[in-house]
Amino acid sequence: MSPRPGTPGGSGQGPEDEWSRIVSGLEDVRRAGDRHLVGPRDWSPEDAVFGEPPAGAEDDEDPGDAEDDDGPYSPDPGPVTQGLSGGALLSWTVLVGVPVLLVVLSLLPGSLPWWATVAGLVAVVGAIGHLLRSLPDDRDDRDDGARV
User: Fold this and answer.
1) Could you give the CA distance from residue 42 to residue 45 in angstroms, rounded to a whole number?
2) Model pTM?
3) What are residue 121's phi and psi, to 5 degrees?
């Protein structure tokens, strides 16, 4: 078996020489490939760093006609949504607020009157009933409920 190039007893070619030969071959391939490329990747990182324009880049825009891309982005306002009806808003407020109010009142010194507890329970049951009654009666089997 003959020794490889760059090893002792080889053809006298060192690893640096072999590496230079490989890299120079790759540069030729890259340059040849750049001729047919069109698009955003037809430039090398060296060109971007040192300010040279990309290969095949055309400057069709007039700098005076360019829009100001540095301004703040403000998206178009979406369609106006209807939101909750008055009854639904009141029901959700009662459903969340009354239990919280009863817990806070029960933590205060003294006893909570029985009528406050009964009124709170009636209000919560009424809110749940109103929310369930406001659900649609008919439902399409193919409708997943999403609304845009």
Assistant:
1) 10
2) 0.41
3) -65, -40
Could you say which DSSP state residue 111 is in? P
pLDDT in tens, 32-73: 555 555 555 555 666 666 665 555 555 555 555 455 567 788
**CA 146 – CA 136 distance, rounded (Å):** 14
User: Band of the pLDDT at 21, cuts 50, 70, 90?
Assistant: confident
Query: And the tokens for 77?
Result: 């306002």
Residue 10 CA: distances (Å) to CA of 3, 17, 24: 5, 13, 22
For residue 6, what pLDDT is reported? Answer: 47
**d(C-alpha 134, C-alpha 92), whole Å:** 12
pLDDT surpasses 50 at 126: yes
3 DSSP assignment: P
Q: Using CA atoms, how far apart are residues 114 and 65, in angstroms rounded to an integer?
A: 76
DSSP annotation string for 51-88: TPPPTT----S-GGG---TTSPP-PPP-PPP----HHH
Measured CA to CA in angstroms, residue 87 lies from 93, 120, 137 at distances of 10, 18, 18
**Between the CA of residue 84 and those of 77, 91, 98, 118, what are the distances in Å?**
19, 10, 19, 28
